[in-house]
Here is the input.
Amino acid sequence: MDNNKIGTYQFVAEPFHVDLTGHLTMGVLGNHLLNCAGFHASDRGFGIATLNENDYTWVLSRLAIELEDMPYQYEEFCIRTWVENVYRLFTDRDFALVNKEGKTIGYARSVWAMISMQTRRPADLLALHGGNIVDYVCDEPCPIEKPSRIKVTTSEPAATLTAKYSDIDINGHVNSIRYIEHILDLFPIDLFKTQRIRRFEMAYIAESYYGDTLSFYKEEKEDGSYDIEVRKNEGEVVCRSKVMFR
Amino acid sequence: MDNNKIGTYQFVAEPFHVDLTGHLTMGVLGNHLLNCAGFHASDRGFGIATLNENDYTWVLSRLAIELEDMPYQYEEFCIRTWVENVYRLFTDRDFALVNKEGKTIGYARSVWAMISMQTRRPADLLALHGGNIVDYVCDEPCPIEKPSRIKVTTSEPAATLTAKYSDIDINGHVNSIRYIEHILDLFPIDLFKTQRIRRFEMAYIAESYYGDTLSFYKEEKEDGSYDIEVRKNEGEVVCRSKVMFR
Here is the structure.
């Protein structure tokens, strides 16, 4: 019964998708996770293609990834995904990252809302399709912490950039994956040579657009993790992130 | 007979792989082409995994892509690839881009060398594996112009950036696909709203590394195309590109 609730998707770590250590980049993993969410939802009648006909779309609010290991160049791996909870305005979707030996080497949690593309207002998930999204809720365990609170107080940006053509998606927004890449580019490469990312979080708060100036504020915390806040045009917060190295 | 000479690989245009117009980006297409080259070579005993054991690797020298159309978000497409010529120091590999209706909507040409990873010197392709790479040469037509001469004379860079973590591949070099993205980021987004890229060329000349300052020199030609030259640290030319819009 729960088999149909869990979607499993195969991948291989392509050469231009790995970093200097030969491991899959966090941005590419994020892309795969979001694609799996899309495949899983589509196959069950809740995909963007179906929703778009009705003028609704999914919006990613939070993503938290925790890893023991990352696939190495040319290695096959798979991603499993399922719905953990459905509330009126949010749904929790979990993921497991499984290596070529079948061992689970990481988990991810995500929080999604659905909005009307006309009004940009949230939709009631429990009213959608007669409420049958709850039939897909699955009690598969996802043994990692929920997304945490991210707080940045510094007023000195670690980096600033202007959103360009390659940053922009079909909706005219800076795409969710590009933020991940720009955030990891705040760290010196020597850190990636000696340490691996154990946990990575994103909180998507507002959209940014072509030509926006994005400022990245970075702060090291007492536990050695880094909190990052991205603001556009020196004002509104666009997203926040937490990076914990091991 | 020629069937085994041509490799065919299936793809779908993923949401984070399309640009603001909803069409696959040139960088992602380039990535797929290079992956197909890898799959095709591996399946026939000339892949990097096999070569690495013998301390050889493929190096991409030129890439020219000419397109009538580009796959749209969520569309399936396939890429066909074959070897056109093998010389002592270079091989020409061609590609066709086929849309979901089975229509060929673009072609690409590429030129590759093989080098020793110890000495960085080129290897003799005709001596490799007893010369049997020539058995895969195929006379499938590739009706687009060969890579052209690209010349930039301006001394005023259109943009400058520093190579960061996300730019770097497993070899410690700025990866071939990132150059494509950075080059297209030289153009204002309005150009992509009203025009499509008809032809795109890359000439890879030297490697650049983490921390290198990359300067992008751009020049509009009489025929309306743009020639771009990328230099590192205000000196050596790293790559050149030509972009023709329609």
Observations:
- Chain B has two domains: 7-136, 159-245.
- The radius of gyration of chain B is 18 Å.
